[in-house]
# Entry
Amino acid sequence: MMKEDFDVTRRSFLDRVLMATAGATMSAAAPWAAIAAGTERAVGDKVRLGVIGTGDRGRTLIQNIAKTRNCTVVAICDSYAANLAKARQWVAAGTPSFADHRAMLDTGGLDAVVIATPLHLHARHTIDAIDAGLHVWCEKAMARTIADCSAMVQRAQDSGKVLQVGHQRMFHPTYLNALRRVRAGEIGTITQVRASWHRNNSWRRKVPDDSDDRRINWRLYRESSAGLMTELATHQLQVGNWFMDAVPSRVIGSGSICYWKDGREVYDHVALIYEYAGGRKVIYTSLLNNARYGCEEQIQGSKGTIEPELGRIYQEVPPRSLALQRMQADVQRGHKRAVPIGGATWFPELPVTTPGESLGWGQYDETMLQFEGFGKAVRSGRPLPGLLYQAYNASVASLLGEQAMDRGTAMTWPSSLVKI
# Structure
């Protein structure tokens, strides 16, 4: 792609974001989106980023940062040499690399860090960076425990530093357009969100000779991960909270190592119900041995359904009346009509198969946009409003769900969370 083509695509993308977030109904739900999109007119010196964690996800983030106009990677860090070697192809020649994050922080020359390390290291890396006077962009989920999530939020607030967490759906024009239409009442009262993330693979990676299983497959062990809950569910629990415009009051669930009996410690099959005020619910499932339904969310209201992952909105069709009900109504009105003998008086309530209406679909680069928003936040010294609140609650919800499954009992929403 030529630079001119990229500029046109980028302008079109930002225009879609601005259109999706226009109007008073969206100002409270997604105040960050228009602010972030405004970076196109406020470029200045690029924010200097150091990336801690250059595995698969870290390298993907580096490539997205390279597309921004206000951020640049000036240092990389990873305790595993093989990851550092792979990352060097995506940064400028001569970019300093470090095996220890403290050495990178002590060297200086940074405005902020990007953290893409295993989950149990997020809190330590975040707090160390903030204590070094830097702003932080951290991958979701926030941390391995609710206490660590709270400590990260508290340290950021006490220091006045920006802490932004990677929930890119909050920057995706399709999701923003879906949220706008929900806020406008197009699908009526939302009473349920169904979400799932299904895969068909073991999630286990081959261990190179120069490493060990707990380093490479950290997602499979309790000390470093909550498995499906923190690596996948956090995304969709944020979506559920976002569209419900609330946090759950409690959660019940069941988890099991159902299929991949290979020594892992985290569940490979989870099913949970998050309850919200008024009896509303988010129903979440995730498993690793069937990919038929993949990753999806269904926002279900009294007048319709929105599937933002698929970019579709479906209006609710009034149910057809039964033949006997029609006949009863005819008698009351004094009307007569032929009554078929042996005809169907019941229609099975099968899933709706109509294509619905498009919400606007395309290859939107929402990961790039969230870094442009982060760059603007760093330069202004003010976090994009609403982002940390959403991320914190999503991480708490995921970890609370893990507790509910482990204990086999309903877990209520914590009352001692840090106020944002």
Notes: Residues 64 and 368 are 5 Å apart (CA to CA).
